[in-house]
Amino acid sequence: MKNLSLILVLASALISCQSTSIDKKEDEIKFKEVVVLNDVPRSTLTFFEITDSRCPQGVNCVWAGNATVDLALDGVGTEGKISKHVNLCLGDCRGGNSQSSFRVIDSLDQSFAGQQYRFILKSVSTFAKTDTTKKKQDYSISLQIKKIKQ
What we know:
mainly beta; four-stranded antiparallel sheet; Lipoprotein; signal
């Protein structure tokens, strides 16, 4: 009976160590900022790169452009340290193929480090204006991150 009680206590301690919280579910994430996705096993997300070709305010443009965000995922899996990059896009995300229909790639389900996540890019701030040149460090994104039950 004591052994069973000890096993139950250890199992519940192990389960309680697995955090399901994400420290920035809906906050703005600044360029190069690191967000913890999971504590055990540890995995993080970094706002790694931005490409912004959106039409500046007050200008008439031939196309709307887009803002593409590169997110770097780092973590530990059964095979050791793992890294992966995922891209999300707001605006006209057809790439170089202008013949295809307009599409937005603002959400993505991604399996990483034994966990399933849904990333939803809500906005990319620092919309370029005609009179200023924006630096990458001036950018932030609004990214919703959800853990998906497997």
